[in-house]
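Hey L., structure's done. Input below.
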Amino acid sequence: MKNQLYSTTNEDGFILPYVLFIISLLFLLITANINHYQREIEITDRHIQQVRIETLFQMGREKVKSEIEHIQLNDTLTYDFPNGEVRIEVKALKASNYELLFNITSDSNEHRYEITNILQVEENVTE
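Output:
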């Protein structure tokens, strides 16, 4: 008669707890990775939204800067850009300083941002 292995002849079920422990560790690891991936997607979406808002802010500020000589004070300007709409209220502080109040609405209309900025315009001196 051949010798049989102890693990194949023992019917006490000592392997089952090890298998259950390994399966639960794998399940925990997979669940943690799925949650981490979902959070990374949310963070990425919010970062992209922040970059779009900053881009709209910079585009609006440069547009006002180029048109500041022709703008009436205490006037509200509206610019439509591909990523959203920018409304800018211009107030004079000093001769070359202006306060700009930005109301930025993204194209998805999910969020609305208000940013206050000081624009200092250097006058061109020609000889």
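The chain has one domain: 6-120. The chain has a mean pLDDT of 86.

-- N.
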